[in-house]
Amino acid sequence: MSVLLPITATFMIAVVLSAVFLCWLPRLTRPDLYFALTVPPTFRDGDDGRAILGRFRVQVLLYSLAACVLVIAGGWRSSMLLLASGIAVQVAGFFEAYLGARSRVRPHTQEPTPLREAPLAPRPASLPGGRLVRAGPVVLLALTALYLNRRWADIPARFPNHWGLDGQPNGWATRSLGGVYGPLAQAILICLMLLLLGYGLTRWSRPIRLRGAPGHAEEHFRRVVLGVLLATQYLLALVFIWAALLPLSPGPPSLLVGAGLPLAFTVVVFLVLIRQGQGGARRVEASALAGKDPRPVGDRTLDRYWKVGMFYVNPDDPALFVEKRFGIGYTVNFGRPATWVILGAVLLVALLGGLVAMLAHK
Predict the structure, then answer these.
(1) What is the spatial distance between Cα 158 and Cα 147, in angstroms, rounded to a whole number?
(2) Where along the chain do its domains lie?
(3) How many CB atoms lie within 10 A of CB 296?
(4) Which residue, 5, 182, 268, 334, has most beta carbons within 10 Å?
(5) What are the pLDDT digits (tens) for 172-191?
């Protein structure tokens, strides 16, 4: 158990933080979207809205408690299956609670206003930072590759690249192009994909609010999301550089970098996004979010285009990226052919990464 304590603690922290975030999630959306359904802006603060939220939170917490029990059992029995089962139980419980809440909200739904806002001038569309900042992750990865090339003779002919729950190596790689440079190649592919995603958000997304405080808050929210994507690229670069340099470091890897740093980064990102709210809604007074039409604004899409409130399918909408209805950030419009091209590119990157990993593993 002592060897597994850091891993068990990491899983436990992840379950607890997820439970807190999931309980908060329904309050982070726009005020006239509740469990991914369009409702009057005052509904979620009314008696019915609070009762639905309370029941949802109780269910999430109960399933999260069961997940904690499984995680502890997994750590005690050195079972990765039990550890993973804890996460699976929490995820499955969340979806059950979410779908139940949607069914209780549905009788209170309302059509959004047909009024639209159109920009009179081109919307600024640029990624955060200059070209050097955006190229930073790839540059760091390339410099690491040059360093490994200079230290080639110091790299063992065969070295571990995967460790079990007991801290003992159970996967090996060789001093080859795939074995040494594989992690760096995977990281470069992922960083380029995230860069493309950021580019798409600036040019292939549709704004919801343009004028006044809501418009400024939404634009600020978009810049924050783009900043998070850029920071994620730097995080991935650092983690993969650490993984690529492991052959030069004796002993098993430290969880501080492999798990602690990504977990801390995730917590910071959650706190930043929670402060914003979806579309910057938490930065604006509720009265400012209300439109001239007494009907809700929502995200200016109809409920019927959202499958279980999470998958947007509208072939008549030219936008490829739209705000999530439940959660924070953006999702894709599955009704557009270009979206499937992007998803195909993501799948190709994943397959190439898997191929690189296979070539490195022995």
Answers:
(1) 19
(2) 1-110, 115-362
(3) 25
(4) 182
(5) 888 888 888 888 988 998 89
